[in-house]
Amino acid sequence: MSADIQATLRSPKGYEVARRALEVMQANQVWPTARNFELWVHYISEGKSPLAEEIDRLLAAGEPITESVGEALAAHYLPEARLNGGILEAGDVLSKELQSVTRAIESAQKSSEEYGQELATASERLGGDHAGPVKAVVANLANATRKVQGENAVLESQLAETTAELSRLRESLDQVRRDAMTDGLTNLTNRKAFDERLAEICEQADAGGEPVTLAIIDIDHFKGFNDAWGHQIGDQVLRYVASVIGRLGAAPRLAARYGGEEFAIIFPAENGRMAMTVLEEIRVEISSRALKRRSTNEDLGTVTVSAGYAERLGGESTVSLVERADAALYASKHAGRNRTSAAPPLAAVAAA
Ligand code: C2E
């Protein structure tokens, strides 16, 4: 995301820009992915740019802004377009602001309801049989009460509408945030979010004196498999391996796509022995599944994975932890693949 757009989203008019961008996206049935959100923030905030003109032209021609059209627009007009901390931060700020507005509205709604009930009770009490001027005062109060209750009802329905609109907006922003942290092919956490989470988890572990173990898993001979069967089947293998890793690495663990055919799992509060058990389960499950080409039922054979893990040493940096897990992975590869290895101790890495 370009620096000027980040500045726009952080500025006082950021909320308005984001709201209008999401509104226009919704009106044109554009799926709220992070890239589309960025495109439409440019569209809203830039006035007459080449991008805005191209989008206007597509809309006028009735052409839907599909995923691939959005991709082509971003590639052509926003060559620097890349989701980074800026959009997450801006989304965070907006989401928090919206949450507090929603809470304020909900509490206003509650007190207006209570006020209405109090007035109704007072109206009943005042409705008794009184004579002369007292009766007239009671009638006036009862009328005033009914009027206030009517106004309250209008206010309540307006508040309910606004609350619903805000919660829709927040859902859209949450979707944009989720999308920015997820790998599109495998649905696992992406590399950028993984790096951030690893740093956070290590910080928490330092504070609580807990262990953390990091594993890196790589599909064996994936390139050969891809070359032999084509990228489409290659992608399905990635999805299959990711599905096993995602299931056994589910929260409180964190499973991520670390690179092309590389995956990672963070094991918060778990030591190397516990991680080893899970990694072996993953390895055995993957290697025992006979994969099929689904269109023809042709046998694709099996794939295997190699894994390496490192249990974090007190205060160790994330860079060193990743290096040691990586070294363990390469030990598995060099020992013949389809196996899991523990990292060498820190001193051995430093001496190497
Ligand atoms: P997918 O094709 O979207 O399938 C999602 C899930 O639907 C699979 O999760 C599985 O539970 C079920 N499923 C779909 N098609 C079949 C089928 O023909 N037979 C059976 N028994 N179940 C089916 P799963 O197994 O975790 O796989 C996740 C992804 O991994 C799949 O997504 C696909 O992209 C890939 N995959 C898994 N196994 C194979 C395979 O044998 N051949 C190919 N080409 N891809 C596979």
Key words describing this protein structure:
single chain, 352 residues, alpha+beta, Alpha-Beta Plaits, 5-stranded mixed beta sheet, two-stranded antiparallel sheet, 13 helices, binds ligand C2E
Overview of the structural elements:
With 352 residues, the protein is an alpha+beta fold. The protein folds into 3 domains: 3-82, no CATH class; 85-180; 191-351, Alpha-Beta Plaits. The chain is built from 13 helices and 7 strands. The protein has helices at 3-10, 14-27, 34-46, 50-60, 67-77, 85-126, 132-181, 191-208, 222-229, 231-248, 272-287, 318-334, 346-351; strands at 212-219, 254-257, 262-268, 291-292, 299-301, 305-311, 340-342. It has a 5-stranded mixed sheet, sandwiched between helices. A two-stranded antiparallel sheet has the order 4-5. Helix 12 links the parallel strand 6 (305-311) and strand 7. It is globular and about 85 Å long.
Quick gist of this model?
The chain is of the alpha+beta class.
Query: Stretches where pLDDT falls below 50 for ≥5 residues?
Result: none
As for the number of domains, it is 3
Task: Report helical residue fraction.
Answer: 55-70%
Assign the CATH topology of the largest domain: Alpha-Beta Plaits
Structural class assignment: alpha+beta
Shape: globular
Q: Mind describing the biggest β-sheet? A: 5 strands, mixed
What ligands are attached or bound here? Answer: ligand C2E
End-to-end CA span? 40 Å
CATH architecture of the largest domain: 2-Layer Sandwich
The CATH superfamily of the largest domain bears the name Reverse transcriptase/Diguanylate cyclase domain
**CATH structural class of the largest domain:** Alpha Beta
Number of strands: 7
Spatial sequence of strands, sheet with the most strands: 2-3-1-6-7
- Number of helix segments? 13
Strand content of the residues, in percent? 5-15%
| Rg from Cα | 29 Å
